Amino acid sequence: MHSHCSKVNLYLSSLLNNKMRLLWQILYLHPARVRRSSSTSAGVVNFVPVCSSTDSTSRKLLQDFVSRSTRLFVITGAGLSTESGIPDYRSEGVGLYARTDRRPMQHAEFVRSAKSRQRYWARNFVGWPQFSSHQPNSAHRILQRWEERGKLNWVVTQNVDALHSKAGQKRLTELHGCAHRVMCLGCGAISAREALQKRFLALNPAWSAQAGGVAPDGDVFLDDEQVLHFRVPSCEDCGGTLKPEVTFFGDTVNKATVQFVHDRLAESDAVLVVGSSLQVYSGYRFLLAASDRKIPVAILNIGSTRADHLAQLKVSGRCGEVLSVIQPL
Predict the structure, then answer these.
(1) Is 107 among the residues known to form the active site?
(2) C-alpha span between 49 and 93 (Å, rounded)
């Protein structure tokens, strides 16, 4: 059985790589053909792991859990955004770690190496039109409606794709920042990523590259020689180094942000995890805090999580499919 599954996964991985190359050739060479109005258009590669439908008992238990709460604290992760066509790192068979041997940018490498920054921004430049066009899916919209109806106390997302904001979520903390913003490491100035794209175009009018695949967080795969002549602008205010306003791997979340989230957790009466394996401590810490405070926890995710042992309820399923049948009573 295990050998059969491995062969299937290898076949799916090969199939996905071929589809991604085609997708990015279409994106770069014919950007007008990429549909921007839908989060699940036919051209988007499916990055959601294979999962059977959630059973009725699990759905009823989750409904009971949500119904009992009047101040629900929700933590969302990459498994929520895969349903909008954005790949993640850890999903079985379809995540970046399963598909390739590539690893995400490390904070220390970005800060110390101009060549690493050049490579990062070149890849991000190519990936930005597609990444920035993704739209919220049904799960994002459902959580926004729960907020409108007074069910949610707070949403904390580990995602940097701005999809919660696009859905209209207001009671929201972007724990790891947002890729739609850029910050200067020198003076701290914050600017829009879309404005930086125009500066990239002005500095690199004749530069072109063909991406070999799509990665999480607006990244794509480029060969090193493709980025050699890519020019990266500096801060317009002080000439400093520009970095996306996100927490790279190896960096830490701002202490004030962490304390703010702890305060929102303390006000809440239940925790619902949606689409996260909680492998990263920055999110997992709030499950530990919930356990210490005896706040009940439910987890909706495909696959196991780091906090399964802390959960009163664990439901396996697609976020949008399951949440669509849960009423915020």
Answers:
(1) no
(2) 7
